[in-house]
# Entry
Amino acid sequence: MNDQLDQDRAARDVERRLAAFLGDAPLGRAPERAVEVVLAHARANPRRRDVLAAVRRDPIDGWGPVIGLGAGARLAPRMLLIASLGLLLVAAFAVASVGGVFDRPSLVPVPSTPPSGLPTVAPSPTPSQPLIETIRVDLTERYGSDAFIEVTDESGTVASAVTGTPADGGSTDGERVVVTQGPSPDTVVLTWTGLGCETGHQLVIQPDGRSMTLFRTTCLGATFPRDLVLELTFKAPVDPAEVVITLETVQE
# Structure
């Protein structure tokens, strides 16, 4: 084993000297005698296969001058290929880093206000509900307690509400409201019969302007009936036959 290692070292020493000799000699003008001696030496002392041939520098490898390493500084072609691939990988990683390939995308904030120069569109207003108005009217009575009525107009079609002048006694059966035409086409007259002790009343006009409910409170005491009258004036002519009124009695 030691003899073989000594032979390998000697062979490499001869190769180094030969490389130095050939490097100093003009290109293509080495002495024929020297070439014959080298060939004879190579035949007589064959080298074992070098397991590190891929990374070990060969003294007579001809790649050194090509890559600018100077005479005698040679690299195996396999090492040149590995080094080139490594350089390519490093360059690709650098380009990807500079270009932001490995960066996570950032969120671009959206301005809450439009850029200057663009018209601002105001939101369209939502239609508002009609104003519900309550009108209090003091009613005229021939006798008994003072009476009043509160008119709640959910239709927005009533222009005014005033008291009418009732006749003596009661003119209805006390279970309904009589609707007649007033002094003008846009006025209707409401007449109902109650007791002299009834005071508070409420009239609710539905959104259609024609359906109504009249609430009255019950009382104990006077037994004599009396009429109460209310005149309603609308913003447009109204047919009394289209007006439907429900009379309801509630407890105080």
Q: What stands out?
A: The chain has three helices and nine strands. Residues 2-99 form one domain.
